[in-house]
Amino acid sequence: MTNDLHHLAAAYALDALDDTERDDFETHYPTCSICSQEVADFHVTASVLAGSAASDAPEHLRTGVLTAIAEVRQVAPIVAPNQDNSAVTNDVADLARHRQRDQRLGRRSQWLLPLMASAAAVVVAVLTTVAILDSRTAPDSFAEVLAAPDAIVTTVVGEAGALQVVWSRDQDRVAVFGNNVADLDPETTFELWFVLDDGSVAKAGLFQSSDGVVRKTWMTEDHDAVGFGVTVEPAGGSAQPTSDIIYLGDVAQTTN
Amino acid sequence: MADVRHIRRRRPDDDLEAVDSPASALRRAAKGDEAAFGEFYDMTQRRIFGVVLRVVRDRSLAEEITQEVYVEIWRLAPRFDQQRGSAVSWATTVAHRRAVDRVRSEQSRRDREDRQHVTPVVVPDPVGDVVTDQLDNTRVHSALATLSESQREAVSLAYFSGYTYREVAAVLELPEGTVKTRIRDGLIRLRDHFGVTP
Ligand SMILES: [Zn+2]
Question: What is the model's pTM?
Fold first, then answer.
């Protein structure tokens, strides 16, 4: 029985369990480190799959949402006693109990505590090197690229959060910034790639984070990019990606 | 076709901190900042609305559910612990589950099946009719290419059709255990391909 439950994380994360199995599994997994890790990972995997179905919501929905939330009171935060891993498990179990109570009361919460279990023990930065890899970088160029009339801001998203890439083709300039980036060891660097229409990539430049913060701008070649991706490469960068893309985002279409 | 909503121009005097990730926007929203929630909405609406629409296959129902999802996320934002998970993944999970629950609770199973018989019941390619999200498409395509045909089929049916694995088994006329295994093996491969490790 319990043995069986251990194999349900994938189906659970795809919402492919029936109510009974779902309830059983939600009772089980917060207490099981293997299953809670799998649930967290598979939820992330599912959310990448979801991205392939992306479709713009109608404009009026944004207004509807913002109007609606103005009337909705937020729940109080849960105050965690400490931040170690045992507390994580306890929190989840706690939350699961809350949820079960909600259900007994007939207020079936749609919220998934489970996610908390997990995913991201944020990689703690060990060492930081800010490499000034491009001599054309200048502090003021940030403001310039942001102010460029044709600047497009692309959010590239990854497991560790997100970065913003600002791109001005008029200025042939790219700026990257982020606030919650896991710092790399000095032997490696982040490399930004233009993602082209045919799925290939072209070098866009290198950057580093320092204490999680990225602020970098530089000149680039011009490409018909449909997106940006980021990989981790050996110091000095690579001609083609040699590792998995860790941040990815599509460039918004512009009117011409 | 072009959509100007997604182009955000920043002025030099904008606070750089204001330009940030979904996680950061949600964190500010968790303190009652409605404008920050608007940013979070802008950064996530394509994925959220898209997956809901894919599951329910009805635009007006998808809009209704998407609004409910965002209201729920707003309500629960103070309890979302950014240290322990991705905000986008969380929101997507809430959305997908709500969409699936709605589809199951409404007695529209029959209708949906009818509609799905118009197109082939088996949907091996979950990205086929989406041309706008080339990046995710590229990424998901290459990931799906690492799955066997039967794994791909099982994962797609389970996720995008909102079927339980038992229903998937019935549709594919396979034993439940086989489908469960295919879903699991397929998802493990995708996970490994996407490099989803905390
Ligand atoms: Zn388990």
Answer: 0.56
